[in-house]
Structure formats: structure tokens, C-alpha cells
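One-letter codes give the sequence; the fold follows as C-alpha cells. An example follows:
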Amino acid sequence: MGPGPSATPSGRRLLEAALLVVTAGALAGGGIAWLLGLPDIADVFWAAGTTVAVVPAVGWVMSALHKGRAGVDVIAVLALAGTLAVGEYLAGALIGLMLATGRTLETAAEQRASRDLRSLLEHAPRSARRRRGSEVSVVPLDEVVPGDVLVVGPGEVVPVDGEVTAGPAVLDESVLTGESAQVERAEGEPVRSGVVNASGVFEVTATATAADSTYAEIVRLAEQAGAERAPTVRLAERYAAWFLPLSLGLAAVAWAVSGSAVRAVAVLVVATPCPLLLATPVAIVSGLSQCARRGVVVRDGGALERLGRARTLVIDKTGTLTVGRPRVLQVAGAPGGPSQSEVLRLAASLDQVSAHVLAEAVVHEARARSLSLTVPKEVTEEPGRGVTGTVDGHRVAVGKAGLAPDELPEWARAVDNQALLDGAATVWLTLDDVLTGAVLLRDPLRHDAPRTIRRLRAAGLNRLLMLTGDRPEPAREVGAVLGLDDVRAGQLPTDKIAAVRAESDRAVTVMVGDGVNDAPALAAADVGVAMGARGSTSASEASDIVLTTDRVGRLADAMDIAARARRIAVQSAAGGMVMSLAAMVAALFGWLPPAAGALLQEAIDVAVILNALRALLPVPGTRPALEPEAESLIHRFATEHDDLRDTLDAIREAAGLLTTDHGPRALEAVREIHHLLTDRLLPHEHAEEQQLYPALNRQLGPEATDTMSRAHSEIERLSRRIATHVRLADEEGGLRPEQLDDLRASLYGLHTILRLHFTQEEESYFSLAP
């Protein structure tokens, strides 16, 4: 419904503003004349206002008919014409003002609701400062090519995707991600276009042109985002399909029963809910705005409405439910060989020269543990086999073991079995041609994945299916941990398309993915959702919704928003219709004259539009708001969790060692565990109890941390038990046979509790922070 297909937004706003001024002036002028005792002049003013309103109203009807729609604007035209015909000029002027007010209110609501989407366009940079040698010049953004060195000043927008080459860079990424927290990017780290420099000057080397950069893709999506007609809006027009003949029928009955055309006009006056059908797009546009604030770009209102009706979720694993990058799960060493730390240090020293994704993970873990790496020499890399070279005078190889499973030594077979059980990849370390150690790597679950799955079910999804090209073992483990309804591994793109189409035949289906291989399935789904922060361009282009932050939890936010916007839209349509029907019945019996009916209908229309504007308000309970103190503590303790991973590995290794070694080496391993518990782990747990949990309790309630406190007590108990074993062994000059079973059980039990406890904290608390 609008002034015509060719009208520009600015022309439409100008027309609506002029109509509001003229109709309000005519109504006010007529009112003054009537108060001065000049009824004829008052009628002239009111008739003029009515006539002026008829012209654009006819245009709106013609525009709707041109689009194949016959809405209740027809009733507005009939009511305006009827008031002129029967001389009820005051009622006509009131209807004219109602139309103008409704149009103006709807436009203002749309402008407010879409300001977050428009801000993306307004934020887009137009130029860049390029440095060549010692000279810095401002150039149009289109002239920037990969390899150019760009200077980004304080408060400026990073113009293209690149890599920090002179920094560090402190960035505000809220425009893209919705997160208010600033992030720091060190030299060599990637940075996305569209983020704002929140600190001093830094330099970035372009890795893409402006057209191929992250921000350009998001801008293209934002340009498509708007209040397109969703099924809910068409539902309102279906209401109009029966509401229009019903209104005309009631008007005819009123005229036939009373013999008065005035009563028929009164029925038509109260059956003029033009802003009623504008209220549904207002609710949808408001929902789009809320999604944008949460870092979710929705292409159109239809996608938002379908998301609100979704009942099935099909989701990819890698990069969606998991982090998308392998991480070290465990380090193991041969009995009598180097320690775990030394195994990791040797492997990482050699892997520094490899670009393999597993090598990057090994090096990252070694640096996170502050291990001193050596520059390797005489390095060669064989694709599919691994890397060999000289480290600290020793011949080192990292990669495949080069042995058949039955040729592996006993300790290595145990590691191989462990990798199979954990769904992990194994990188073997050979030292001077002897198999010496292993590093197990796995793509871990995102911390917020379990919470997100629960929220998605609460939002209305009753079937969750995971499709992945990965192996069955890790896929099934992820499905079991998250409680998914179905897991299908080894899926090709064609398999994913077939699965998505089959699910769509049963219910409205959402597909979430991030890779090139997900793009066809995203396009086939009722609602395709792309992980846009690190996902492929093809996935983003094939999707209806893009998560601009690397958190799948934002989909749960979007579902809550979509369901609420759709519910409010339906409420507005149905509520307006019910109130209008009640007023029509009153007018039929002569209880509501045309002028009073026009005032009442004005109130009805304004009420439903204001109700639709409720969709602009944040959805309650989408995410607990954290105080700065709690957020800071979460980041601190999350970092400490990462630092304590080697302690968990050491506990498990010591427990396993007790199975084969009861002598001084085993005692020394247990004594080392005692020191790790005393010096590192227990201080961490005590600090959580005294600092983190009280901060969380103030916002989440004490019941949120009660079970975690109980876990702390059990960790303390087992730690004391291990300390007692160490003291007894020292007094007796070694471990006694009667100690072994209990000590082994205590170590394994502590390892299990710590793994579960860390996972629960990361899921329940750490996932709340940006």
C-alpha cells in the first residue's frame, strides 16, 4: 500500500507530510469556524479536507490493485465519498486526518525500526589512507588492492579486510557483531572491514578489495533488508478479502433497515482500518531492527516470519556447533621418554615451518603454555606424511607414525584407542627414529553450543538434525553431548540438499552452515542461516539470514525476536478487526454517528500501530546482562581454564602410570600432581568461589552457582586425599601396594570431575560474556 510503484521514499514522505498538514489544517479551521458560529464556513473547510484526502486514497487503492491486492483502503475511499455525498463533512475530515496520521505514524515507525540497518550503509567507508614508502595519501576505496598498506587512525573505520602489520590494533566490532567489548588484534592477526579503531594509529595490509571484503557483503545484505510482505501480512490481506464484502453488506443492511444513507456511511466510517494493515509490516520491520542489534542481518520480512514459524533445525557441525579449528586435546609420551611438555615443545618447534592446520594448532598450544621453541634446521615436508627436521641436534619427525596398528608399541596402541574413543586426530612424534610421543587434537564444541541448543528448543524447535561431512565417531559424540534428534555423518552437498528438502516437506525448516559446501542446502531450506563472521561468501549469499558474529547463539535470539514479532503482528491485525466489527455493529443500530465513528476508528488504528511498535522493545530474557565486574572475571577465569589444561593431562597420565609403574617414577609423578594442585588448581578454584561466584550470584541468583560450589568441595576432598597418599608414601619410603587402587581411583575421579566442572562453567557462565 503506497502512493504508487514509482514513488521514491522521499517523495512518499513529502506527500504524507503534506496530507497530514492539509487535513489537520482543514479540520482545525472548520472547528474554529464552528466555534465562531459559522457552520457553513466550517463545512467548507471540512469538505475541502475530505476532498484532499480522497485523491491520495484513490491512488493507494489503484497501487494495491496494480499489485493484485484489494485491501480495506477501498472502504476508506467509499467512506470519504459517502460523507461527501450525504453532507457529513466533519466525519469525512476526521477520516482524512486518520488516513494521514496513520501513514505518517507508519513511516516514522519504519524509519525508527530500520535505523540499525541503515546505520550499516551510513557507516560504510568511501576512502582509505594508503601508505607507499613514507608518503600517505587518501585514495578512493575502489583503488585499494590486496597488498596495499593502509593507515587507520583513531575512530576511523577499517576500509577493507586485511592483516595488522603495525600495531597492535584495539577495535570496536559492535557494528558487525553487536558486542560492545573491545578486542585487540596483534601484528599478523586478521581484521575485518567495518570495525572501528578504538585506540591509536595502526597499519593494515589489505588482503581483499573493498568489493570482496566482509563489510561490503554485509552492506549488500543490509540493502536488501526491509519490510517485504511476509505471510503474516498476506494473512491480513486475506482478512480484508472477507472484511470488505462484510463491511459493504452491513452498510447495505443499515441503509435498508433505517432508510438512511447516513447510517450506511457511519458503518463504512468505522470500517476504515487503513493503518490496521500497516501495523503488521511495522511489527515485522521492528523485528528486523531487533535482529540487527543482535548481530543478525535478515534479508527480508518474509524470512523473519518464516523463522518465527520454524519447527525443524538442520545444522552443520564444523565451524557451527564446533569452534572450526582443531585444538590440542591431550599430549602423551612413551614410558621413560620425554615429558608431555617436552613432547609438545619438540613437535611445535618443527611444526613452526608447516602451514598445515594441525601444525598451527600444535604451535598455538605450545605458545599458550609458554614453551620455548627452537628454530628447526634441514626441514622437509611430505604432503600427507608430515614434517621432518633437526631440533636441538636431534632428528625429529612429526606426522603419521609410519607403522601399522599392530606394530605400535603398547603405549602407542593405548593412545590410538584413546583417539578413536575421543574422535581425535593423532600427530605422532618420532625422535631419532624412535616413536616417542603423540599429540591428540580435536575440534572442540563451542562453549555456548549446549546452551544454544536448549534455547532453540525453548523457542519452538522440536526436531534438531546435524549434517556433517566429518567421520561418524566425532559426529555421534557431538550429537550425544548436545542431545540432538538425529546425526548424519559423511554427508556430501547433494546429501545435505536431499535431507533439507525432506525436512522442509514435514515442517518449516532452518538450515545453519558456514562453508562453501553448505551453500546449496542453505538455498534449499525454508530459512538459510549463514555463520558470516568466518563463513564463506557463497554461504552468505545463499542464505536468508547472516550471523555477523561468530556465535550460533544469536540464532536463538533471532528466533525469539521473530516469534514475538509475528505474534504481535497477528495480535495487531486480529485486534483491529475485532474492534472495527464491534464499532460497525454499533453504527448499524444507529448508536454511533459518522463523526463519532471516525474519532473511534482513529483511536483503534493508532492503538494497533502502537501495539505493533512493541516489537521494537528487547525480547525479555534473551541473554542475561552482565555487569562489567562479572564480565571481566569471566574473561580472567576462562583464560585460567586454558592454562590449566596441562594440569588435567598430567593427572590422567599419572593415573595411567600407576597401572604399570609402582616405583619412584610413579611417586614422582603423583608428587608433581600434588604440587600442581596446591600451587595452581586449588588457588584457581578458591578464587572462583570467592570472586566469580558472588559476582554471578548478584545477577543470576545463588542457585545458579550452588552445584558448582558442590563440585569445588569434591575437588578439594580428592586433592586432600591425594596429598595424604603422598605424605604416607614419603613416610614409608615409597608407594605401598594397598595405596595403589585408591590413589588411582582418586586421580581418575579428580580428572573426570575437573573435566565436567570446567565444561559446565564454560557452558553456563563463560558463554555469557562476549
Confidence is low (pLDDT under 50) at residues 1-6, 224-233, 535-539. The first strand starts at residue 127 and ends at 132. Residues 664-700 form the longest helix (37 residues). Residues 124-221 form a domain with the Calcium-transporting ATPase, cytoplasmic transduction domain A fold (CATH 2.70.150.10).
